[in-house]
Design goal:
- It is built from 15 helices and 12 strands.
- It has 395 residues and is α/β, with parallel strands linked by helices.
- It folds into 2 domains: 257 residues, 3-Layer(aba) Sandwich (Aspartate Aminotransferase, domain 2), CATH 3.40.640.10; 132 residues, Aspartate Aminotransferase, domain 1 (Alpha-Beta Complex), CATH 3.90.1150.10.
- A 7-stranded mixed sheet has the order 1-7-6-5-4-2-3, sandwiched between helices.
- Helix 1 packs antiparallel against helix 3, helix 4 crosses helix 9 and helix 13 crosses helix 15.
- It is globular, with a radius of gyration of 21 Å.
Length: 395
């Protein structure tokens, strides 16, 4: 939030989701303006020099300064209770930009082993090539976290709830442990969004989102964002200025529109997912359901403390093998078979051969990604229709 947003500092989440970062031009537009320009014209050579050097604030080049993108960044920062935010071209580029800005050769990442498969690949295949090592631990085992720290640990990275098993991490305890070791806690808050969970309130340092998911809400655009303290965000922006994983102004405008209905959608996603999870538990063809909204889930009570609802993603194991899981998936007619999530349309996917398919069999086993596991991202359709759709394959 900027100084011009002072009147919003005590505003509620719904007001911030609609109004934060909304700066009208002299034209007086009501909806946020979309600045589709690559560069900006300066009044004179001195102004150009001052803008490029940073001595004078203002737009320079849309690779790292664009008013529409800045409005989106300010709104996310306000919702996450962060000082500042920096938008990127995708969720993965937000993670990469954070790591490139804050890490160097010889540093160490301590990471939950229950994270998105591509995050694991980024850490183990690519950052490893540049001398940054990663250790993976059980996200729910605080002893494992404590033992995983090294003298050179700089970042601790978690998703909570995790993808796809909905593991829940105790953010307050992990933040205290992380800070006692002089490291930063980075939380991927994609599954909850600030509508359901604000990790900074529990001590997290940096928050990362794939805006492609719930922030958009309709599967239209790619984008990412990282939020945190102003100094750190300056370092991330400096990397983006040089490397260019930039969010487009059009996508930023779409995300601004998505944020306006974020809480309403997240509550509806959560209601539908809760109803579907409770229905799946009763199905004799289902071996196990993973959803923190179920009282039987080991992270249920912790999720109740950290989240206002349990989100729209759940996973379940069918009785049988990969063929049994594929039979359920291929029998659906309403669910979209796609790896994306956070859409108004419900999606279904087989993690072992898609989102986590690039992991080794050993890595998948350690992360609990079984061949009979199915992930659902529950959308906004009538939940009774979703039950009937799944019943086709389960029967």
């Amino acid at each position: 939030m900027t100084d011009s947003d002072d009147f919003l500092r005590e505003a509620g989440l719904d007001t911030l989701a609609v109004r934060a970062g909304c700066h009208r031009t002299p034209e007086g537009e009501h909806s946020e303006a979309m600045f589709l320009t690559s560069s900006y014209v300066f009044e004179n050579a001195q102004e150009a020099a001052d803008r490029f050097s940073g001595e004078e604030p203002g737009n320079v080049y849309s690779r790292y300064t664009n008013p529409t993108v800045r409005a989106f960044e300010e709104r996310i920062a306000a919702l996450e209770k962060a000082d500042s935010a920096v938008a990127t071209a995708s969720g993965m580029s937000a993670i990469l930009s954070t790591c490139m800005a804050l890490l160097q050769v010889g540093d160490h990442i301590l990471c939950s082993r229950s994270v998105f498969g591509t995050t694991t690949v980024l850490f183990t295949k690519y950052l490893q090539k540049f001398g940054v090592a990663t250790t993976f631990v059980d996200p729910t085992d605080m002893v494992a976290w404590e033992q995983g720290f090294q003298a050179n640990t700089k970042l601790v990275f978690v998703e909570t709830p995790s993808n796809p098993l909905c593991d829940v991490v105790d953010l307050k305890k992990l933040a205290e442990l992380t800070h006692s070791r002089g490291a930063r806690l980075v939380v991927d808050n994609c599954f909850c969004t600030p509508a359901l969970q604000r990790p900074i309130e529990f001590g997290a340092d940096l928050i990362i989102h794939s805006a492609t998911k719930y922030i958009d809400g309709q599967g239209r655009c790619l984008g990412g964002v990282v939020a945190g303290d102003r100094e750190t965000m300056g370092e991330v922006l400096a990397f983006i200025r040089s490397a260019g994983p930039t969010l487009s102004a059009f996508n930023a405008w779409v995300f601004l529109k998505g944020l306006e209905t974020l809480r309403l959608r997240m509550e509806a996603h959560s209601r539908n997912a809760q109803a579907l999870a409770e229905w799946l538990v009763e199905r004799p063809e289902v071996e196990q359901v993973y959803y923190a909204g179920l009282p039987t889930h080991p992270g249920h009570e912790l999720a109740r403390k950290q989240q206002s609802a349990f989100g729209g993603v759940l996973s379940f194991q069918v009785k049988g093998d990969k063929a049994a899981a594929w039979k359920v998936i291929d029998s659906t007619r309403i669910f979209s078979l796609t790896a994306n999530l956070g859409d108004a349309k419900s999606t279904i996917v087989h993690p072992a051969t898609t989102t986590h398919g690039r992991l080794t069999p050993e890595q998948r086993a350690e992360s609990g990604i079984a061949d009979n596991l199915i992930r659902l991202a529950v959308g906004l359709e009538d939940v009774e229709d979703l039950k009937k759709d799944l019943a086709r394959g389960l029967s």
